[in-house]
Amino acid sequence: MATTTGRVTRMIWQSQFVCLFVETAPSNQSLFVLQFHAGDSAFVTEHKRQLAKLLAVALTSRRRVGVQHETGQAVVRGIDFLLPDISPVGPAVQGDFYSITGNGIPNTAQVVFETGVSTVTVTPDLRRPHWVLIERLPAAVPAGPCTVRLTAPGWQSDRVPITVFTGAAEARRTLYPGRPSASPPYTFVFAATPGLEAESGGGVATDPVRNDRATYHDVVRHCLANLLTVTESLLRDGGLERQVRFVSIFDPAAAVNAASALVKRVSPNLIEPMRARMNGFVGRYWEDPDIVFAVSGSTTHTRASAWFTTDDGSRPGVTFTYDGVSRTHRRFTDIPGSAAISTQMDQSGLTAIHEFGHAASDFGNGMVIDLYVDGTRTGFVVNKKMRAQASDTIPANFATYAGTTFTSDTARDGLGYPNTWRSFHPALVDAARPNLMDNYWLASSNVQACRLDGLTFQWFRDRLRAKILR
Amino acid sequence: MEPIRPDVREELKRVHPGLADRDIDRYDELTSQRFLVDPDREPERIRQIDLERTRIVQEKMPRLAEIENAVVLRRREASRAPKPPPQVRLKGEPEPPREPDGSA
After folding, report:
1. Torsion sign across C-alpha atoms A387, A393, A399, A403
2. Would an 8 Å CB–CB cutoff place B29 in contact with chain A?
3. CA–CA gap between residue B15 and residue B69 (Å, rounded)
4. What ipTM was estimated for this complex?
5. Are A39 and A49 in contact (CB under 8 A)?
6. Alpha-carbon gap: A329 to the closest alpha carbon of chain B (Å)
7. Which chain B residues are Cβ-neighbours of A345 within 8 angstroms?
């Protein structure tokens, strides 16, 4: 038995014959035939009827099929619907995000949309080996049926039939679906805040981001690149990023009120995420978030901030020891970690992944805090300790985590500890640059090459694995 | 919280004579502390920190917001990468030459 693969381009049903044309290459069609004989049994007749229906489905939906036949013969014996090696995520809408998942996608891949008369090639705004993202599907991609594929020198994906739409972009859009077997998958939501709360009095105004979808898309694209493509590999390590669900919510129809004010102004120019409102707002779009980045378009309040997660302590976790104390990486989230991000943000830095460092840690099960100030707080802080006196020598070892002893950063990379500071940090992964949780703007070159310290990286990696692989 | 940029720090000191690094550090210390406090359990502590932050800003660097926002906006414009336009080709037209990275 041989199999010929291609797209069914035409069917002719005449008397006892069904003729079908299968496009095996752009300039090659193969003809096959399905014949109903008077002597066929009822079973065989039904089998052939089902085959004819499947072929009609393949023609209508433009799917690639494998037609089974005897070698050198044109009589159809069976049909397979072939799964393409890429998968578009959600509808293709001009002006909206558009992403495609796959495997082993080269970092030079282009997205090619092809109709009967034209080909439109779009450079993705984010490339990962398992997905590409177009920040806004260009209007140059014509509305109507077409095929989409990915191409790179020496590599090409399958063609997938899609229909491109004009009109309103989706209010809730899955950018990447994450781990299908997790319930719920670790979910990272970007949300354009409908409302912006005043610092005092509780008044809520419409946030300017509502009228600037283009800049919102740009910031989401930047945040994803910052989380997934800078030198720090926290989310890339062990392929964790493949399991994270990324979602965008930009809903022009959402009411502007206290419940939808995800960001509050804090004098003189800070934006604060309203952590207690995140579950309620995001839940209306059927998402169960672990992290929410609320995006504000305020031009007067632009400095980003974050709140830690509150884990669900009543559900399972993975135990570990830190300095001999038994603790737990909880798998599930009660109140998501949150950050308020400005559309005005400088995209040359590490603000998004720095705020993720705060938001993805937890009030009770381990806080990852700023290292560019001296202070700390009571409770379990992962990445900072205090000496009794600023003049005391920094201990050689910082902490023992999960049986491994991690040394201290005795020099605070090139920045040095001010002589009034009592705090000290774990040793860096890259000792030539400031810690990602320190003032990365002070890096002598390439700010985006700053990394975490080794202890926080390992602790975070284990915490994220517990959650993402739940 | 996003760390303060060195150019913002220098501009603050230039615009506010008498402003010292220790004042900026104290402001940043308090602001960072603010986001370590559980807002559901200790709202009064946050209110006290905000009062102290406001006092420092009013007394030492009243133009903090204006200066930081202006620097951020300037840097943002400089940091945005240009996007290549889509390439449209009618059927039958020759394919455009490609760069080594595969882009048209």
Report:
1. negative
2. yes
3. 14
4. 0.91
5. no
6. 19
7. 72, 76
Taking contacts as CB-CB distances below 8 angstroms, the residues of chain B near A358 are: 1, 35
A458: how many CB neighbours lie within 10 A of its CB? 18
Chain A to chain B Cβ contacts (< 8 Å): 145
Which of B49, B55, B51, B65 is CA-nearest to residue B23? B55
Conformation bin of residue A62: beta by default, left when phi > 0, alpha when psi is -120 to 50: left
The distance of B83 to chain A (nearest Cα, Å) reads 8
Write the CA distances from A94 to A98, A135, A140, B35, integer angstroms. 9, 11, 9, 39
Residue B52 to chain A, least CA–CA distance (Å): 11
Whole-model pTM: value is: 0.93
Q: Which of A429, A387, A394 is nearest to A411 (CA)?
A: A394
Partner-chain contact A374 B29, CB within 8 Å? yes
- How far is it, in rounded angstroms, from Cα A245 to Cα A290? 10
What are the tens digits of pLDDT across the range B34-83? 999 999 899 999 999 999 999 999 999 999 999 999 998 888 888 777 88
pLDDT tens digits, A37-50: 999 999 999 999 99
B57 and A CB contact within 8 Å: yes
**Residue in A351, A350, A330 with CA at minimum distance from that of residue A341:** A351
- Token couple for A429: 């992964």
Residue A79's H or E segment, with its range, is: strand A78-81
Q: Which of residues 77-96 of B touch A (CB under 8 A)?
A: 78-81, 83-91
CA distance A291 to A10: 49
- Nearest-CA distance A36 → chain B (Å): 39
Q: Which of A345, A344, A313, A348 is nearest to A329 (CA)?
A: A313
